[in-house]
Design brief:
The protein is an alpha/beta fold and about 375 residues long. The chain has helices spanning about 15-25, 45-60, 60-70, 115-120, 155-170, 185-195, 220-225, 225-240, 245-250, 255-260, 265-275, 285-290, 290-300, 305-320, 345, 365-370, 370-380; strands at about 5-10, 75-80, 80-90, 95-100, 135-140, 175-180, 200-205, 330-335, 350-355.
């Protein structure tokens, strides 16, 4: 078998016909009737989604956001039989530390647009040039411009191995890893598969490996702080009423994909609900995250028809035997206001050397509270350079 290690320049250039088709489909959406009850308690309200879809079709400017993405150098390469798309933004600072940023679901590379400048060019953003990073921001296999997955088995450990190979191809001998949501699975796994080269791992929106698993010992519960008990309550609320999407994507991603790939309104609802539920404040999604950024994120799922292959990461995760194992790589955790990581459980499988707790921000920290995330990433890696 021929192995192709070539790294190819990439530029987003969506055909106008794809944008016309999207507008046409949105205009022909068959809307359901509102269910009884208060707004959002049974899902995304019909009228809210109609208004957002109307803006998507006639007010949102994809070309402007396409140009913003294309302002950054992008590439593709094939690793382990899979196409990998990534942004590679080098700092002008000579001693910049390479850093892999890994997104999760329902995110994309769009999550990191507001932190690229401060992380690569701290000098221009009120920071210390010594804190500069070279950024490598991949689209996860099966997501966005990495395209559909070609075979089974792409769990977080395999993705981490692919990213380690990507860093080798780019010529980086030492680097850091940062991520939230599934990125908080992949980044620690990078430390596990490539400990000789990963200098440190920083996570936010961390769950498995950073929270209790199963029943909690009453003695442990009694020792938890008030803040930790609040996180435990959020975790239990999620398991009780917030994880329906998880169960569907972890068991029947293909069935779900038919609907989301055919209906842009359905794809929009499936994602925007999480921007409502997982951000701080309890208001509308756009109260926490810019509406155009939410739609640009949705566009990367819609334009690439990757709703199913992105959802499939949940299936792979739940059917994988690669459960988190102890890691000796220095690990930092940023716990934003809506996060659920608890230090005593995180320390059981990670070498925690940095722990920050914030009273604002939520699951999409790079979009909601980029200032806090940037400073925490800088502070954590400062000691590891």
């Amino acid at each position: 078998m021929t192995i192709n290690n070539e790294i190819r320049p990439f530029r987003i250039d969506v055909p106008q016909s794809a944008l016309d088709d999207l507008a046409d489909r949105l205009g022909r959406t068959r809307w359901g009737q509102p269910l009884p009850g208060n707004d959002w308690e049974r899902g995304v309200p019909v009228e809210y989604l109609r208004q957002l879809a109307r803006y998507w079709a006639s007010g949102y400017d994809w070309r402007a956001h396409e140009a913003r993405l294309n302002a950054y150098p992008q590439f593709t390469t094939e690793i382990d039989g899979q196409n990998i798309h990534f942004l590679h933004v080098r700092s002008a600072e000579p001693d910049a530390l390479p850093l892999v940023l890994s997104h999760g679901w329902p995110g994309s590379i769009v999550e990191f647009l507001d932190v690229v400048g401060p992380l690569t060019d701290p000098r221009a953003h009120g920071g210390d040039p010594a804190d500069a990073f070279d950024l490598i921001i991949p689209s996860l296999p099966g997501f966005g411009f990495s395209g559909p997955i070609r075979e089974a088995g792409w769990d977080s450990r395999r993705i981490a191995s692919a990213f380690a190979e990507l860093m080798r191809r780019l010529g980086y001998r030492q680097y850091g890893a940062q991520g939230g949501d599934f990125g908080a699975f992949i980044s620690p796994d990078l430390g596990r598969v490539d400990p000789d080269h990963v200098v440190g791992v920083h996570v936010n929106a961390a769950t498995a490996g950073f929270i209790p698993f199963g029943e909690i010992d009453p003695a442990d519960l009694a020792e938890l702080s008030a803040a930790d008990k609040d996180r435990l309550e959020r975790m239990n609320a999620f398991l009780g009423e917030g994880n329906g999407y998880f169960q569907i994507q972890a068991t029947r991603p293909q069935t779900l994909a038919h609907a989301l790939t055919d209906s842009p309104a359905g794809q929009l609802a499936w994602i925007v609900e999480k921007f409502k539920e997982w951000t701080q404040g309890g208001g509308l999604p756009e109260d926490a995250v810019d509406r155009d950024l939410i739609l640009t994120n949705v566009m990367l799922y819609w334009l690439t028809s990757t709703a199913g292959s992105a959802a499939n990461i949940y299936y792979e995760s739940m059917h994988s035997h690669n459960w988190p194992t102890p890691s000796g790589v220095p690990t930092g955790v940023a716990v934003f206001a809506e996060d659920i990581a608890i230090r005593r459980y995180a320390e059981q499988g990670n070498t925690i050397v940095h722990w920050s707790e914030f009273d604002r921000g939520g699951h999409f920290a790079a979009l909601e509270s980029p200032d806090l995330l940037v400073e925490d990433v800088r502070a954590f890696f400062r000691r590891l350079r």
